[in-house]
Design a protein that fits this description.
- The protein is mostly helical.
- The chain has helices spanning about 10-20, 45-75, 80, 85-110, 120-150, 155-160, 160-180, 205-250, 250-255, 260-295, 305-325, 330-335, 335-370; strands at about 5, 40.
- Helix 2 (about 45-75) packs parallel to helix 11, helix 5 runs antiparallel to helix 7 (about 160-180) and helix 10 (about 260-295) packs antiparallel against helix 11.
- It comes from Rotaria sordida.
- This is G-protein coupled receptors family 1 profile domain-containing protein.
- GO terms for molecular function: G protein-coupled receptor activity.
Length: about 375
Amino acid sequence: MMTPSISLQQSKNWLSVTNKPTRLYGMDRFLCEPNSLVLNSSTAFHFSQTLSYTSIHALPILALVTNSLILLVVLKNSLLNRSPFAVYVKSMAISDTLVLVLKLISFENKTSKAFYWPSMCTVLIFLSDASTLLSVWTIVLITVERTLVVLFPLRIKKFVSVYCAQVLIILVAMLSLMFSTRVLFISIDISPEQKKRCHPISDWQNYRQLNATITEFTLCFIPLSIVIIGNCITLYTVKRAAFRRHQNLTNHIYHRQRYSETNENQLILMLLMVTLMFMIYFLPFTIVNVISRWGLPFDLCFTQKSFEIYLIIRSLCEFLKDLNFCTNFIIYCISGYRFRYAFFSLIHRSHRNRLLFNVRYSKNTKQHSGNI
């Protein structure tokens, strides 16, 4: 009995149609034996399919729920809504939701038997790229702002204001839309001979590869470097300032400064959480992209077994990357005391209003029955 297997070329065709995260495009040049490679359908191939399907269909629902809660908490709390923090939070909540929802729509456009619009291929990629750019570079704005505040504390009003945050978000949104228009020029092959959906015309293949390179740098390499460097500078500066003040202040004055140091400790915790989660989500995905572009170091090549392991790792890395767009609510609740307090206050107020409504409804019902 033969074991079911899929050749490299067959897997290329099927994966390009279904847009799975285990695409083999361009990876055959890093294989030890490209012509003899087969994928075991019971292990790596099935795992990547299942994880990809779960990510594409489940994460948009999670993003809609969590990001809606973020918007609800911020908009219902006047103190949070008036802060520059709220501008960035609302921007990320909206853009993160759009990223995953547009990914789902694009997947259905490529795989659904009910409908297929070739004209929507580039439009969906354009909107998805713009939303992702807005989300990622909003994190960069937060990092740069926190770094400037720590380095220049006497000029905090110049860097931290609602107006400044709104202007920056509008500029980033406009630049994201303008920068993403480059994908609209790609022509889709709609000839009857072309069996792959949303596949560009052969004359546009080089442009498509160039566009993929630009996307990797603008969404992974450059933002990740800025976030890591900015947060390292911020953490080092805050810790050094806190240590010097602790050495210079007397015990009496130190007790008076405990509240400010508590706020500093919370700032350090939030920055650590943001940096850690951003690295957990994007650093593995960035490393996998480097491997897919330049191959393994020391001129090593993939065997069949190692390539299956690579497919599993790549699927996990892309899943982690997508989690970045639907887990901010959990990060805010863990690291932000004010946000957590506002969330529980909203729940308590909603529960109290429901109880009052039930009491009033029961009273009105009794009065109505008594009159009858």
